[in-house]
Write a structure and sequence with these properties.
The chain is an alpha/beta fold. It has 20 helices and eight strands. The chain has helices at about 1-15, 40-45, 75-80, 80-95, 105-110, 125-145, 155-160, 175-185, 205, 215-220, 225-235, 235-250, 255-275, 285-305, 315-335, 345-355, 370-375, 380-385, 425-435, 450-484; strands spanning about 55-65, 165-170, 200, 340-345, 390-400, 400-410, 410-415, 425. Strands 1, 2, 3, 4, 5, 6, 7 and 8 form an eight-stranded mixed beta sheet that branches. The termini are far apart.
Length: about 475
């Protein structure tokens, strides 16, 4: 620890001596870093390889879609006043010739104020979130025009076209509003509104972790889940990053982790609210430092919902089950069934579904001591597979006499080794790949019960007939006594 403090002191002295040196200006960067784990904008996280295979006709589409860009958690909203304090301190530091931000970044920081509207609902859908869903619906119509033909002005036709597609949401306002924006654009009508719509709610499927007491207790509330994250924050490398950011902002003593994290979160959200903008607080970070915080967030979700979780297979199973059942039913009924089904959910559902599909899996886990290795080549990056408006789209194709499926993630075709390292899979192969989802003993939500609940449930199944018999005997006894 003494060596670390000495390193920080040396860094501060070097910063004071080189304050007048050349400074990198965030406001003038040609290509600033725009990947912020699950807070990444859809425009930064999406691909552009979603095309209909040659000699194939799409006949059905199943989609799991994350809500669009949202407002922050209540903790971030309540901390906004602290940002004004930090802003004024940073500006004052530079007036005292401490710190190393360029003049333009300081000017932009001086103009900064919270972009949150009055009375904002924490985690509610932001205006950009509506645009995200409209954009995604437009892409679906552009790529699959026959599945989403625009209706006529006849109201009956509007209703008919709307009912060709199924829409479900988790029931949270941000997923419901996302479903409304998407479905209205997709069907070409305003048939759905926030007051009355045909969007059904299915929170147990689309927000399973929130309705899973055992998961909450054994994973979310378990300190061991965050062990690697906490160890990473204690490394000399991470502490050096904290010191360098503090120095750049003109502080003589290092800022707290919470203060720097708050600036990072606001930087990320403002990037997502207005893609292509240059949020002033992003100037606090160099690109390599943003990658460190991205890794921190990626590692957190890796152990909470991803391949590092003890419930790695259970959480994503019900959604993949829904996908497979929908594809099989559509294949049997073809044009007589719905043309599409869209489930609007959360980051915390996209992640386990991705894991159940076996995608974005690295050869080794994300740890506190392998950052330098994983930063160069890791697959597990939420910015790539779980940005705002992230989506997993499974499309059923009829290709001559064969039925094929392509699973796209954020407009990128997913490649499976079982399909000859191709994205083009037969429905039969997918059935074999995910055969466990059809096993009710393996794919259910019973694992969510706490041990005491399981015991009670087991005993109740045994005791119910006995209790009923006793009640019957008691009633019979009192009736006999009454009439004797």
């Amino acid at each position: 620890m003494m060596a670390l403090n000495f390193l920080i002191l040396v860094l501060m002295m070097l910063s004071i001596l080189s304050t007048k040196a050349s400074k990198q200006c965030y406001a003038e960067m040609e290509s600033p870093y725009v990947y912020f784990a699950a807070m990444t904008s859809y425009s930064a996280g999406r691909g552009s390889q979603m095309n209909v295979p040659e000699n194939c006709e799409p006949v059905y589409l199943w989609g799991l879609i994350r809500h669009g860009t949202r407002y922050p958690e209540i903790e971030v909203i309540n901390s906004m006043d602290k940002l004004y304090v930090l802003r004024d301190e940073i500006i004052l530091n530079h007036k005292k010739e401490r710190g190393n931000l360029c003049e333009k970044d300081i000017l932009n920081l001086g103009k900064w104020s919270s972009n949150l509207p009055a009375g904002v609902v924490s985690e509610g859908l932001a205006p950009q979130g509506v645009k995200d869903q409209i954009f995604l619906a437009q892409k679906m119509k552009e790529i699959f025009p026959k599945l989403f033909e625009s209706p006529t002005k006849d109201d009956i036709m509007h209703i008919f076209v709307f009912h060709l597609h199924q829409f479900q949401s988790s029931g949270q306002s941000r997923t419901r509003d996302s479903a409304i924006a998407f479905s209205n654009e997709l069907t070409g009508s305003n048939f759905t509104t926030s007051e009355g719509n045909n969007i059904t709610e299915n929170p147990e499927l689309l927000q399973l972790a929130e309705h899973c007491p055992r998961y909450v207790k054994e994973v979310e509330q378990n300190s061991s889940t965050y062990m690697e994250v906490n160890l990473f924050k204690k490394t000399a490398y991470f502490q050096k990053i904290i010191a360098e950011i503090s120095i750049r902002l003109g502080y003589i003593q290092s800022l707290s982790f919470d203060s720097i994290l708050l600036m990072y979160n606001v930087c990320a959200y403002e990037n997502a609210w207005d893609p292509g903008s240059r949020p002033p607080f992003c100037a606090a970070f160099l690109p390599d430092e943003l990658k460190v915080f991205e890794y921190l967030y990626d590692m957190n979700r890796y152990y909470k919902r991803g391949y590092g979780s003890r419930f790695v297979n259970q959480l994503g199973c019900p959604v993949v089950q829904d996908m497979m059942q929908s594809l099989l039913y559509a294949n049997q009924k073809l044009s007589k069934t719905h043309k599409g089904k869209f489930l609007f959910s959360h980051m915390e559902t996209i992640i386990p579904t991705t894991v159940k599909l076996g995608l974005y899996k690295d050869e080794e886990p994300l740890r506190h001591d392998n950052y330098q290795k994983m930063i160069k080549k890791r697959k597990w990056r939420l910015a790539q597979f779980d940005p705002f408006a992230a989506n997993i789209i499974a499309v059923l194709y009829k290709c001559f006499n064969q039925t094929k499926v392509v699973i796209y993630q954020n407009e990128r075709p997913s490649v499976f080794p079982q399909c000859n390292n191709s994205s083009f899979c037969s429905l039969e192969i997918l059935q074999r790949m995910f055969s466990d989802v059809f096993n009710k003993d393996e794919c259910n939500t019973e694992f969510c019960q706490l041990h005491s609940e399981k015991v009670f449930s087991a005993y109740s199944d045994f005791l119910n007939p006995i209790i009923l018999a006793i009640i019957f005997l008691i009633i019979t006894y009192f009736l006999r006594c009454r009439y004797l």
